[in-house]
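Reopening this ticket.

The earlier resolution said the output was attached, but the attachment link was broken on my side. Pasting everything inline this time so it's all in one place.
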Amino acid sequence: MVLSLRPATSEDAAFSFQVYASTRADEMSVVPWSEEEKRSFLEMQFNAQRASYLQNRPQAEWLVVMRDELAIGRMIVDRSADEICLMDIALLPEHRNAGVGSKFIKELMAEAEAVLVGAQGADQVLAGIGGKAARCLVVASMDVAPFDRQSRAFCATSAGCVTGSPRQTPWPCKAPDAAFR
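Inline output:
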């Protein structure tokens, strides 16, 4: 089994919606709506999310998570000189709880450690936490089971993951679960 990422194309739009909708299945199972109403609601939410991501982070990289030749999820990452932001990662239900999402999150954390922290030094990064100098891997959405959907921000340092935020964000900055250490 080979896990990889490839750039998303316009042909992946239906698949991306399928992945998004799968992350909302539990919520949709308890609302008294018809299937058509549920789909309409999910399409509205999906389109709003996409528009927001494109407006707020137009340079973000939209990726398809692959297992061998099979598309199994999506991942959206925005890289800048001082931040690597994992905006979204989601897998189809049958591919969750197998370490796939964790693999890619850990790779981004290692990249942040090597690129962002390595360029500046861990002491400077730690001193900047809470201020404009912090270098962080920001995880803005966690839709990969078994993790909850609360947003998190992780700062990569040589000391491991610590709480911090590189800038004001609309999501809370929380310490990572033990699974990320």
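Reporter confirms the inline version is readable. Residues 121-181 have pLDDT under 50 and may be disordered. The radius of gyration is 17 Å.
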